[in-house]
Amino acid sequence: MLVLARWTLNAWATGGPRGARDAGPRVPLVRAALISALLPLATGELNAQERQVEGPIIYDRQTPLVFEGDLRELPTRRGAQPGDSLREFPDMRVDQPGRRQGPEGIRLNGELLGPPVTMAAASSPVSFDGIGAAICFPPNIVCVPPDVVGDIGPNHYVQAVNILFAVYDRQGNLLVGPAPINALWAGSGGACEANNNGDPIVRYDHLADRWLISQFAIAAGFECIAISRTSDPVAGGWYLYSFPTPGTPDYPKIGVWPDGYYMGTQRGFPNSGLDVYAFERVRMLNGLPAGQIQFQVPGSIALSIA
User: What is the pLDDT at residue 220?
Assistant: First the structure.
């Protein structure tokens, strides 16, 4: 454990194994990297697991593009309507033989794993229709599953479904969209403009009163992250980042912490392992070139904490 910690600190001090060109002090990311890397090691056999975790991998800082327009000017695309065709995207899950759900709960090879999975009733006093599942193949072929995400702030609700996003006020009035997520990067000429691959994330950063929208450009190996420049996601502008994520990091999930944006992904369940990232949140909030740090966790460790 101490060896890994020393190596992490030394890597930041010396520019890391991939040598960030702008390798200034990044104490918050050191803490983020250590938390991400060491949590899986809490299962015991520390020496063996330390040898298997790869990292830290430090990337060059990425300079953002700046979107200064009004999101209401973006092109819109309709969501799914009754009668549209469905096309299911194959995912990376591996079916577990013997797993089934009955009235009493989920069983695997006869062993009861937990109670039945049910959907909780909405408790919000406001209810309104959001985006329909996205039309991924015009004119009317719908992608499933829809990968519905959203978050709420003091004045807005932002939702994303597959490759589309929309902004509502808290009363459910549509303010923006539905618009393709990659329309934010229009004119950039990069992977985040050329690819609209989905697996979206929406986060309201309550610590800074800002918004985060992301999706991956998975074939090109990038995570596309947009940070609102103000508390107004409609007309306040956005900082647009394109972070390299080599390999096939799927199912991204992002958390908001004071010292960084943390992201976890997987490379194929159950045996291909995980990737954990931390991004320089404070620099992203200020529209500055921002870096990331990555650890790769083998599938054997990932399964040990499942």
Answer: 87
